[in-house]
């Protein structure tokens, strides 16, 4: 069974019938943004149903006092947050390209061509083989001038500090994970992290970047790639900001920390500024839903 198609006017009418009586005032927004997309932001305003087998399930009706205005405020906050995260992750990605390319190139300019030799067996061998396969495909298909230049003049042998410019964030993280432990530790040291901790954080940052790039809801997203937090939980620098690594705020705190390490003050302050605008005044919406502890701004990691 498939849900029936509904017109824009019918969608507005449905929202009114379920309790968002001001929905007609936001008809243009619903048309531009999409009924289904906005429904994800309207979900927290729906009343819980006591008859459902799942106690967390919600009914189709909205809580008394809910409004489409509140839904749009939450949506705008999330959009601002995603924009700030995207700009911050881009800055971090560039810094990672430089550090990975420089450190791996110092040891072996063509380390990326020898990954299967570094990892001859086990789980890492499979990861190395997959990375090498994808890398060859990417380079063969690329129309970038610098890649064509190396393909023509150096038989395709491209030093790793050039190669990193062809990798996206996910590729960079994989390359980092396949580097020898000494090189991973050296790079992680520049961020005042352990190697395993740093790899975990990078994978989480890649997730944040993907969520932001694909315009998915972020503010109360379940973070499926959780950052390792056990080494820094409740330290003076982080305070209680990492108390729930499955919530977005812990991941955003890690991002703030990494931005500080690369001296990206502008992006750090922009991220902090958006979080300060969390719409806590909206009924049914709480900072706890995002994993934000009380007085989070006093934690040193969030100082601009």
Describe what this molecule looks like in 3D:
The chain is mainly alpha-helical and 304 residues long. The protein has two domains: 8-49 and 56-66, no CATH class; 74-302, no CATH class. Helix content is 55%, strand content 3%. It is built from 13 helices and two strands, in the order H-H-H-E-E-H-H-H-H-H-H-H-H-H-H. It has helices spanning 8-17, 27-33, 35-42, 68-107, 115-118, 122-141, 145-153, 160-163, 169-178, 181-189, 195-213, 248-261, 265-276; strands at 46-48, 58-62. Strands 1-2 form a two-stranded antiparallel ribbon. It is globular. The model has no long low-confidence stretch (mean pLDDT 93).
Q: Top keywords for this entry?
A:
mainly alpha; 304 residues; single chain; two-stranded antiparallel sheet; 2 strands; 2 domains
Brief overview, please?
By secondary structure, the chain is mostly helical.
What's the count of strands? 2
Radius of gyration, Cα only, in angstroms? 23 Å
Give the averaged pLDDT, no decimals: 93
Helix/strand-derived category reads mainly alpha
Largest β sheet strand count, sense and barrel closure = 2 strands, antiparallel
Order of helices and strands: HHHEEHHHHHHHHHH
Tally of structural domains: 2
Read across the widest sheet, the strand sequence of neighbours is 1-2
How far is the first residue's CA from the last residue's CA?
A: 53 Å
Number of contiguous helices: 13
Shape: globular
Secondary structure: helix percent: 40-55%
**Strand share of the residues?**
under 5%
| Residue windows where pLDDT falls under 50 for at least 5 positions | none
């Amino acid at each position: 069974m498939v849900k029936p198609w509904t017109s824009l006017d019918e969608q507005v009418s449905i929202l009114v019938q379920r309790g968002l009586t001001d929905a007609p005032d936001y008809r243009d927004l619903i048309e531009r943004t999409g009924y289904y997309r906005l429904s994800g932001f309207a979900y927290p305003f729906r009343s819980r149903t006591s008859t459902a087998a799942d106690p967390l399930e919600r009914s189709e009706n909205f809580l008394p006092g809910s409004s489409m205005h509140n839904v749009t405020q939450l949506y705008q906050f999330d959009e601002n947050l995603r924009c700030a995260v995207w700009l911050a992750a881009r800055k971090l990605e560039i810094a990672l390209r430089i550090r990975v390319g420089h450190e791996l190139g110092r040891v072996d300019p063509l380390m990326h061509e020898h990954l299967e030799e570094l990892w001859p067996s086990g789980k890492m061998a499979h990861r190395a083989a997959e990375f090498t396969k994808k890398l060859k495909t990417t380079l063969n298909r690329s129309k970038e001038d610098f890649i064509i230049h190396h393909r023509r003049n150096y038989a395709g042998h491209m030093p790793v500090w050039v190669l990193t410019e062809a990798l996206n964030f996910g590729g960079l993280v994989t390359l980092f994970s396949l580097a020898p432990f000494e090189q991973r530790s050296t790079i992680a040291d520049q961020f005042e992290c352990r190697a395993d901790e740093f790899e975990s954080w990078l994978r989480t940052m890649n997730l944040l970047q993907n969520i932001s790039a694909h315009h998915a809801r972020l503010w109360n997203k379940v973070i499926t790639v959780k950052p390792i937090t056990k080494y820094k939980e409740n330290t003076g620098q982080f305070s209680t900001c990492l108390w729930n690594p499955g919530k977005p705020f812990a991941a955003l705190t890690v991002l703030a920390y990494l931005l500080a390490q690369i001296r990206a003050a502008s992006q750090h302050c922009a991220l902090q500024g958006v979080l300060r605008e969390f719409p806590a005044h909206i009924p049914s919406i709480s900072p706890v839903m995002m994993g934000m502890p009380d007085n989070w701004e006093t934690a040193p990691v969030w100082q601009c």
